[in-house]
Design goal:
By secondary structure, this protein is an alpha+beta fold. It is built from 4 helices and 4 strands. It has a domain at about 10-65. A hairpin with a 2-residue loop joins strand 3 and strand 4. The radius of gyration is 21 Å and the shape is elongated.
């Protein structure tokens, strides 16, 4: 998997993207999530279905976190200490009492 950081794009690449209707965002998607195949990166149908399943799973998790109003994880020295819903405790609100 390549990084999606920008690199030099040749005139040939720009022309092929234009001719084939492949925008830069799709090129970045392939570079970020595709699989290496020698000198090219491929994001085929099976790869895309797998990626879509991962995105849907992530969406479910995000919606669950939204239902909770957000989630906090406290860690120190490489250890996970505690977790709670964002709305369950507000130190500033309790300090004002």
């Amino acid at each position: 998997m390549h990084s999606a950081s920008p690199t030099r794009t040749t005139k040939h690449m720009q022309a092929r993207m234009s001719q084939r209707g492949i925008p830069g965002d799709l090129v970045n998607l392939v570079r970020q999530f595709g699989r290496d195949d020698h000198d090219r990166t491929v994001l085929g149908r099976k790869d895309l279905h797998g990626l879509l399943n991962e995105v849907r799973g992530l969406e479910r998790l995000v919606l669950k976190a939204l239902d909770k109003g957000g989630v906090v994880v406290v860690e120190a020295d490489g250890a996970l200490i505690t977790t709670y819903n964002v709305t369950s405790y507000d130190r500033r609100r309790n300090d004002d009492r």
